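Researcher: Next entry: TATA-box-binding protein (Aegilops tauschii subsp. strangulata).
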Amino acid sequence: MLVSFRNLAFQLNSRDFKIQNIVGSCDVKFPIRLEGLAYSHGAFSSYEPELFPGLIYRMKQPKIVLLIFVSGKIVLTGAKVREETYTAFENIYPVLTEFRKVQQWINSPDSQLQGPVGFCHLESRDC
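Model: Predicted structure:
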């Protein structure tokens, strides 16, 4: 990183660096019901799909902000050390599995559709 700064007009010393923010990303490989997550974890989350497509989850410990998308992709930001991103993911993963969208299949002889037709949590009527 220092090599790219050497062409600048000011002197840079590597001891002046301090990590302020670590950003990580991951994919849980399943879609997430953001509306249910926002409702159930309202004290920690903000979800306004008209303004931003992701749910903003402000974890208290560790103090990390997660951007959670319906696709299952997640951005973790605000960590000071790498281990905080791992801890935050370990904390949020069980919550995400609780709000996993389950795929429904229609395979009836009367139906023109065969295979997946959408995602719906089977325990509720919210689709």
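Model: Note for the record: Residues 11 and 119 are 56 Å apart (CA to CA).
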